[in-house]
Specification:
six-stranded antiparallel sheet; Lipoprotein; four-stranded antiparallel sheet; 373 residues; Nuclear Transport Factor 2, Chain: A
Length: 373
């Protein structure tokens, strides 16, 4: 009798296990049918941000749903341009998937920029087509200047915080154009130049100008000082990144508060000093270990320098040896975790340009190796 009962119990358990396995297989099959091609959907989300950075509104419409296009009737170039972006997270809900990005915007004309959050929603239709169904954005951090003060404003904060003063820059610096520290250049900064925020919002790259000289540096934000500064009387003017740079965007109240406030900048890493060069753009590498500088001289010739963000040391990359600066322009295109992508273009009117040199290249941010694509 006991043997019969045992056999019966084993039989019931076996049937249950088989049923559960079939149920699991059915669920897995259903999940696969309703699932996403993650590579394809992420590429599409990246394309959207890339097209947005290039103001390519034709392709933006092409990869978006009719509903999204219908709600974006007045698309045009406005505000500061996107200079770089970084994917931070992915969230899947039903038949949709969201890709979250940190997007860095920066004005080429002054200390005016922002760090924005973008959420790009991908929709998979019944036919299997992938399209952008929705895009949401918010500003995480803004940087702007008021007279001789550089300020930052955080999301949902009414006030802005003093990041640094022009007087915080060093007055003497060794130019990195020389391998050995032979001499120092003197500089008394008169106004801030371009600014760029790191992806995590804890560093700001900034330049300052004194005639034909430009000093470059990175300011690290001290979170403890920010907490202390929250109790101080600071900038409550509400002037954000759109408030203008230089003297035109400031008020007498802001001037007074800037003098009394404690800066939330922890330290300044001095990168370099340029003479007769304009800094057009500064981009942090995706791991924030490097800072890429796009610059141009008075003739319009474009070049690239790359520095270590923590020390300010310049990377020893043979740009000038491979692409003589009197013949070629070097234009930053994109940056990922390990490489900078740039384009080599001829300088107008210059003879002797080699056609085989022109084109797209990458340079390793770890090994400094240049490769043609």
């Amino acid at each position: 009798m006991k043997r019969a009962i045992s056999i019966f119990i084993i039989f019931i358990i076996s049937i249950s296990l088989i049923a559960c396995k079939k149920s699991k297989n059915n669920l897995d099959s259903a999940s696969a049918d309703a699932g996403f091609d993650y590579v394809k959907s992420e590429q599409l989300a990246n394309q959207y941000i890339d097209y947005l950075s290039k103001n390519d509104f034709t392709n933006l419409r092409r990869i978006s749903t009719p509903d999204l296009n219908g709600n974006n009737k007045n698309i045009e170039k406005k505000g500061n341009p996107i200079i770089t972006y970084k994917k931070r997270d992915t969230k899947e809900t039903g038949k949709n998937i969201y890709y979250m990005y940190r997007v860095v915007k920066s004005s080429p004309d002054g200390p005016n920029g922002s760090l924005d959050n973008y959420a790009v929603k991908i929709d998979k239709s019944e036919s299997g087509e992938y399209q952008i169904d929705d895009v949401q954005s918010s500003t995480e951090l803004e940087v702007y200047s008021q007279d001789s003060f550089l300020r930052v404003k955080y999301r949902d904060d009414v006030r802005g915080y003093l990041l640094m003063r022009l007087s915080n820059f060093p007055r003497e610096i060794y130019p990195k154009i020389n391998k050995a520290p032979i001499y120092k250049e003197n500089i008394v900064p008169k106004e801030f130049g371009v600014a760029s925020i790191a992806y995590e919002g804890k560093k700001v790259a900034i330049t300052a100008k004194d005639g034909d000289k430009t000093i470059l540096g990175i300011v690290e934000i001290d979170e403890e000082e920010k907490k202390k500064a929250s109790g101080e009387v600071g900038d409550s003017s509400g002037v954000g990144a759109g408030g203008g740079s230089g003297a035109g965007g400031a008020s007498s109240g802001a001037e007074t508060s800037g003098i009394l406030e404690t800066p939330i900048g922890k330290k300044i890493v001095t990168l370099d000093i340029y003479t007769d060069k304009k800094v057009d753009m500064m981009i942090f590498g995706k791991d924030e270990e490097n800072i890429i500088v796009q610059h141009s001289d008075k003739s319009g010739r474009k070049g690239i320098n790359i520095y270590k963000a923590n020390s300010g040391d310049v990377l020893d990359i043979k740009f000038d040896e491979n692409f003589p600066k009197n013949m070629y322009n070097l234009v930053v295109k994109n940056v990922n975790d390990y490489k900078l992508y740039f384009k080599v273009e001829p300088i107008d009117g210059v003879k002797g340009v080699r056609q085989d040199v022109l084109g797209e290249y990458s340079v390793g941010l770890k090994d400094s190796k240049i490769e043609k694509l």
